[in-house]
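Can anyone check this?
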Amino acid sequence: MTDNIFVNLRNDDKTVFKAKNYLNHRFLPDSLPHREEQIKQIAKYWVEALNDITPPDITLYGKTGTGKTAAANFAKNQLKEALEEYEDCMVDIKTAYIRCTDYTTEYQVIARLCQILGQDVPYRGWTKAEVVNAFRSIFKKSSLGKETMLIVILDEIDVLLKKDGDGILYTLTRTDNVAILSISNFIDFKQFITPRSKSSFRDREIVFPPYGADQLVDILKERVELSFKEGTVDDDVIHLCAALAAKEEGDARYALDLLKTSGEIADDYKLEKVEESTVREAKDKIEHSKVKEIIETLPSQQLRVLESILYLTKQKEEISSGKLFDVYKNIAKGDSVSYRRIFDFVSELELLGLISTNIVSRGRGKGRTNIIELQCELNILEESIWAI
C-alpha cells in the first residue's frame, strides 16, 4: 500500500510555520497595535447602549488593510464582554456583522439580520414588506419586559449601495433601537445615498489612516511569534515586508499575505528560514496574481484603455488624457466610447490600484493637465493582458 500524500504532507515537520491561521487577515488578535484611538472612538459611541440609549450611526473610512474591520469586530467583542457585567441593562443588546459582498441586496441583509436575531425568514419567496415587518416585530418587548437593541456592522457598504440602492439605510434608520456602523474603502460612497435616507442617516465619521512602515513592523512581529517557529524569521525579513507593504499604501493585509507567501516559498525550497530573496519572490507572485485576477474581470472597453496606457508607458511618453484617447481610438478600431466616458474608465482603474492620476500645472496661462501613470510592473501587466 502506498503512503497517503495528505498524511505525509500533514506530518512533514520541515516547515517554518507553527500555525498559519494567525496570518489570515480575518484573524482577530487580542490587541490591535496603532488602532487603539479608533477603537476608543467607537466605544465612546457604543457605550450609550449600556445606558439603554440607542447609539448614533458611525462610518469607518480608510483604504484596504487599514484595520477598519478588525477594529469594528474588536469593539463588538469588547461590548459583548461588558454586557456580561451589566445585567441590569433595561434592553437586550444584540450585535451583528454583515459582509455586504456576501449579502448584496436589502432583502438578503434584512433576512440575515432576522436569522441572527432568531427569527426564521427565508432568503427568497417573501415580499420586501413582509421581511421588513418580520424584522421590526423583533424590536417589540420580549416576555421578560426588555426591548431589543441592535448594533449592525455593514462591511463594504459601498458594494451594497452601488448594486441595490440605499433602501437598506432607509429601513434600518427608520427602525427603532437600531444603530449602524458602516465600513467603506471609499470616502465618496455617500454619493449613492439619496436625500430621503440622508435625512435620517446622520453618522459620525472615524478615519483610519494607512499604517506606516514602523507600525507594520509592530503588527508583523506579533504575528511572527504566533505563526512561525522560533528563529525562522529574522528582523530584516520583517522590516522588508513592512517596507514593501508601506509602499502599498500601508496595507496590513498585504504585509500579512507577503509574510505568509514568503514562508510558503521557503518551505517549497526546503529552507530552514525565510530569506529576503523569498520575500521579493513572494511580492512578484502576489502582484502577478492580483493583477491577473483584476484584469480577467475588466470589461472590454476598460481593458482597451489599460492597453493604451501600457503602450504609452512602453513608449516612455507622458500620458495625458488627450494622448490616451488618441491611442485608445486606434486600439478600439471603430468600437470606441466618448472622450468623457474615458474619464470614468480611468477613475475605475485608479480605484483598482492599477494606475494613478495627478493633475499637473503647465504654468501661467497654459492650464492644467491630468497625467496618468501605471502602478504595477510592466511585465506582469503585459503578461496578464496577453494571457486573456
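Reply from J.R.: I decoded it. The radius of gyration is 25 Å.
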